[in-house]
Design brief:
heterodimer; B: mainly alpha; 2 domains; 3 helices
């Protein structure tokens, strides 16, 4: 057995020098390392799909039971902002996919640029999301159980300061199909279910975008340090796969929430 | 790297032109879904929206996520997750309609009790 030589070798340097720099000691080849990592990230993405599926199921159950509630509530979402956010995320997916290409080919300058653009797009997405959320808090178009929601069984329970600001409440500019004030109380109360599902789905998605931003920042800093190249781009590739999944979920969320006519 | 389009020895390098085509395809489909969303398609609204979303998702999976060039096993893992979501949806859809009548009756009873108590 050559155990003694191996031990002596590793004891001296921590790594033996007859294999590529970025190959972890428990893998035979870079290919094997890459494939194992890829299998790992796809398994993680499977758990992510199942994670989100619970909320999509909640969406389906409530929409199939209360289709008229869904149809009515969707008018309080701003389609233009939703569509803009879709385009922003698609652009970020494109730049990240381009970044993977850059890393594979050793184009480090372009890689840094593409990671930075992807990070900016993610920030833009969260900015638009923030505008949408704050508008909803202002209007009182919130989930059932919230103190400030306008979707109450008894109209007198809606706080005065919300009634004062909410265009949805009295439809003062005629921008909606009806004033929430004049709706059948039970129907009005059910509108809160739509917003419960809306905030859970977009909220969980938003958390994923935030985590993606941290990931992008980490990848950008590492690429500035010169970590990545044709032999070592696994982190970029796997990060991109996660980011594309976040994009994928939004691709379904956008029509399901914003485009109910 | 003498040739900038050369293959990396790990993974598959997608040509920039293809990435751009996929991106513009996705933008076009987004415009299409906003357009069809604003129309009344007589009950087919949801199906049309979901078909377009599935096309977009397929483009992202096949090209941006490299599944077209990847080991088939990775794609299989992903397909299985989608299949499981389908099963999950199907069973819950069956279940919710099974008990909806009882839930509505209970809610009506509660409401009456509440009103009688006041």
């Amino acid at each position: 057995m050559s155990t003694t030589t191996t031990v002596a070798h590793e004891g001296g340097h921590g790594h033996s020098h007859d294999h590529p720099k970025h190959l972890a000691h428990h893998f035979e080849t870079l290919d094997q390392q890459f494939d194992a990592g890829k299998l790992g990230i796809w398994t993680f993405l499977l758990t992510e799909v199942l994670f989100f599926s619970a909320l999509f199921v909640a969406y389906t159950v409530y929409r199939s039971n209360y289709p008229e509630v869904w149809q009515f509530a969707s008018q309080y979402l701003n389609t233009q902002l939703g569509a803009t956010n879709t385009l922003v995320l698609l652009l970020s997916s494109f730049t990240f996919a381009w970044g993977v290409r850059n890393a594979m080919l050793g184009q480090i300058g372009l890689l840094k640029m593409n990671l930075a653009i992807t990070l900016l797009c993610a920030g833009g997405f969260m900015g638009i999301k923030y505008m949408e959320y704050s508008h909803k808090f202002h209007e009182g178009t919130l989930w059932s159980g919230n103190e400030d929601t306008i979707f109450r069984l008894h109209a007198e329970d809606v706080p005065e300061h919300i009634k004062e600001h909410s265009h949805a409440w009295d439809n003062r500019d005629g921008e909606f199909s009806a004033a929430v004030r004049d709706l059948d109380p039970e129907f009005r109360q059910k509108l809160g279910i739509f917003f419960g599902v809306y905030f859970c789905l977009t909220g969980l998605h938003g958390i994923h975008v935030l985590i993606g931003m941290l990931l992008l920042l980490w990848l950008l800093l590492r690429s500035m340090r010169g970590d990545f190249g044709p032999d070592n781009f696994n982190a970029i590739d796997f990060g991109a796969l996660y980011w594309h999944l976040v994009d994928l979920i939004w691709i379904f969320l956008f029509p399901l929430l914003y485009l109910i006519s | 790297m003498s040739n900038h389009d050369s293959e990396s020895h790990l993974g598959h390098v997608l040509p920039l032109g293809l990435l751009l085509k996929v991106f513009f395809g996705l933008v076009a489909l987004t415009v299409l879904t906003v357009w069809t969303g604003s129309m009344d398609l007589h009950g087919f609204d949801l199906s049309v929206a979901l078909i377009i979303a599935t096309c977009k998702a397929s483009l992202v999976c096949l090209f941006f996520m490299h599944l077209k060039y990847d080991r088939p096993f990775n794609g299989m893992i992903f397909l299985f997750s989608v299949l499981m979501v389908g099963l999950f949806l199907a069973f819950l859809a069956l279940d919710t309609h099974q008990y909806q009548g009882q839930i509505k009756a209970k809610m009506a009873d509660d409401l009456h009790a509440l009103e009688a108590g006041e």
